[in-house]
Structures are given as structure tokens and as C-alpha cells.
Write a structure and sequence with these properties.
Layout (H helix, E strand, L loop, with lengths): L1 H84 L7 H74 L4
Helix pairs in contact: 1-2
């Protein structure tokens, strides 16, 4: 009777050990998959934030350009009025000065547009990088989960083999 109880206890311990190993492996696999999903979601969220910032800056730049052009028109009108008040006719050199001033003022506005375009491009690259990082982390987590699964299966198989060899499981 004592031998039967001892063998039953060994068998129960062997199966319990295998079950616990399987549960531990399943938990590790699940955790790694969830980490990958979270990393991918974070990458998407970061990308969306960068794109929203690019849109916000584009709107702001367009408004600033509109305001700058309005100020430029006022400046040119003031310049024209001062020429007229001093008796200068808008022909020849005064007209060239006014044209040059208009060109320089518009160049400033175009510089604003260029800088905004560069910022927008950088933010789009940042968005793509965030998405890439999220996808890469998700893939790495899946590979790690697969490795954990294989490791757990290997340990379970080894434990089963040892249990059979010791006679705990027949």
C-alpha cells in the first residue's frame, strides 16, 4: 500500500510540474505578445501625434504667411505714399526700389514656407520612424514569444522524459 501511494504521489508531482511549466510558458508567451501589441500601438500613437503637429504647424505657417503679406502690402503702400508726399514720381529708380522691396519682402515669406516645409518633412519622417519602431518591436515580441514557447516545450518534454525514466509516469 505504501509503494502505491508513493508512486501515485510521484506521478501527481510529475504531472503537476508539467502543468505548471506549461502554464508558466503560456503566461510568458501571452505577456510577450501583449508587449508587442502595446509597442505597435504606441508607435501608431506617436506617429499620429507627429502628423497632427505637422498639420498644426502648417496651418500656423499659412496664417503667419497671410499676416506677413498683409504687413508687406501696408509697408509698400506706406513707402509709395512717402514717395508721393515728397514729390517723387514712381518711375525709374523709385519704381525699381519699390520692386526690390516687394521682392525682398516676398522672399521673407517664402523663407517661412520653406522652413515650415522642412519641419513638416522632419515630422513625417519621425512619424514613419515611430511606426517602424512599433512594428519592429511587435515582430521582436512575437519571435521572443515563439522562443519562449519552444523553450517551455523543451523543458516539458525533458521533464516528461525524466519522469518516465524515474518511473513516476508510465
Amino acid at each position: 500500500m505504501f509503494v502505491f501511494g508513493f508512486i501515485f504521489t510521484l506521478t501527481a508531482l510529475a504531472w503537476t510540474s508539467l502543468a505548471m511549466s506549461a502554464a508558466s510558458t503560456a503566461g510568458a508567451v501571452y505577456s510577450k505578445i501583449q508587449q508587442g501589441k502595446a509597442a505597435k500601438a504606441k508607435g501608431k500613437a506617436d506617429a499620429a501625434g507627429a502628423r497632427a503637429e505637422a498639420d498644426r504647424r502648417e496651418i500656423l505657417t499659412r496664417e503667419n504667411m497671410r499676416r506677413e503679406r498683409s504687413m508687406n502690402r501696408r509697408h509698400l503702400s506706406t513707402q509709395k505714399a512717402k514717395f508721393a508726399a515728397s514729390g517723387v514720381q514712381l518711375r525709374g529708380t523709385p519704381m525699381m526700389i519699390q520692386g526690390q522691396t516687394a521682392g525682398e519682402l516676398e522672399l521673407n515669406v517664402l523663407d517661412m514656407a520653406f522652413k515650415a516645409s522642412e519641419q513638416s518633412r522632419k515630422l513625417e519622417l519621425q512619424a514613419k520612424h515611430s511606426e517602424f519602431e512599433g512594428k519592429a518591436a511587435n515582430k521582436a515580441a512575437k519571435i521572443s514569444a515563439g522562443a519562449s514557447l519552444l523553450s517551455g516545450a523543451s523543458q516539458a518534454a525533458g521533464g516528461l522524459g525524466e519522469a518516465k525514466q524515474s518511473g513516476a509516469i508510465k
